[in-house]
Amino acid sequence: MSPKKWLATIGVTSVFFGSLLAGCGGENAEKKDGEGKQGEKVEVTLAGWGGNPTEQKLLQQTLDDFEAKHPNIDVKLEVISEQAQYMDVIKTRLIGGEGPDVFYLDAFEAPALIETGVLEPLDEYVTDDFDIDDFEKPLLDAFKGKDGKIYGFPKDYSTLALLYNKKMFKEAGVEVPKTWDELREVAKKLTKGTEVYGLGVNPELARLYHIAESKGGKVVTNNKASFADPKVVEALQPIVDMHLKDKSAAQPNEVGAGWGGEMFGQGKAAMVIEGNWAIPFLQDTFPNLEYGTAEVPTIDGKKATMAYTVAYVMNKDSNKKEAAWKLISYLTGKEGMKTWTSKGYALPTRKSVAAELGYDKDELRAPLVAGASYATVWQQGTNLPIIVNNFNNQFVSAFLGERPLAKALEEAQETANKEIESK
């Protein structure tokens, strides 16, 4: 089966959130791959989804800086406004031979797209001054193929951290929990009936994957669902028990909130586990809220968190590969990444940039940065879209008390694997 036909069979899912080099290759390669003769302009297309106005301004500034340093390269930015439809659009364009030269790729979607063969491996373009070792390893590894080659360089990321309401903690006389056992006890003391819950919970696999595997079980084995493993059930049961038995946890929609950051900002949860995206939201929407952040509590003495990351990748069919690489290398190099992440809306995947911007010591962002080195990246093989849909449907039913967790996950696993086998 050809790569493009194989690509067309992939199920489409929504995307979960989200140095300057001279390049390589000789004169012949430059002419072949679209760098152009001296004085000629080359247009490189860059596709991504839209962000808030500040993010769009930062991206445009970074692109303007790149064009100033590369006067022979123009960047045509194509913003696909609906993030949920982004991969739909990209796959359709790739199938039709009209894909952009460079585009965003979420780690969640990366394994399946890499396997189709439509992406250009980037290893041969890299020179020593690009400093691959500067990237946080889990984030870089997310864009490696089974062949060990790198198909994308991560542009930014977020991990998860514990956000806690300082005023509520002081009034309850409790300390910031360092373990999940401590968190459960603290949550009870912080709960005030249905007015304030100790913990706001997102009952979905994207937020719970690291917890699910904390007791030694595996959510996915050999590209099939294995989350009915008793060890996974054991790891997740306390989350369900906090909701049903302790009455100390709730999901946002149970208190009329749209998501965890809103639930926390409204004072309906004393703690939530959220990403970097919550910080600018809370600053803008709840500027008077006094809160702190901490690393996600440990389980059995082990640190764990999730990471969500997006890379710049190159279309293998691009006829402007040298120019496309120069763009990627600038955007994911130290200079371009510093500009893009300078306002804190996104965290830099390069350790040196995080240190230069002070995020590793920032009062609110330091716990998020600390988690990058040990985080579980939100991806797992080519069948994760099927697996996550079935997990989420049944886990929520258990969280709401409609059925036992073990039974719910057993049914979800069976359905997921039947869908995988019938692909």
TrEMBL record:
This is Multiple sugar transport system substrate-binding protein. Keywords: Signal, Sugar transport, Transport. Signal peptide: none annotated. GO terms for cellular component: ATP-binding cassette (ABC) transporter complex, substrate-binding subunit-containing. It comes from [Anoxybacillus] calidus. GO terms for biological process: maltodextrin transmembrane transport; maltose transport. CDD domains: PBP2_UgpB. PANTHER family: MALTOSE-BINDING PERIPLASMIC PROTEIN, MALTOSE_MALTODEXTRIN-BINDING PERIPLASMIC PROTEIN. InterPro entries: SBP. Belongs to the bacterial solute-binding protein 1 family. GO terms for molecular function: maltose binding. The keyword Iron does not apply.
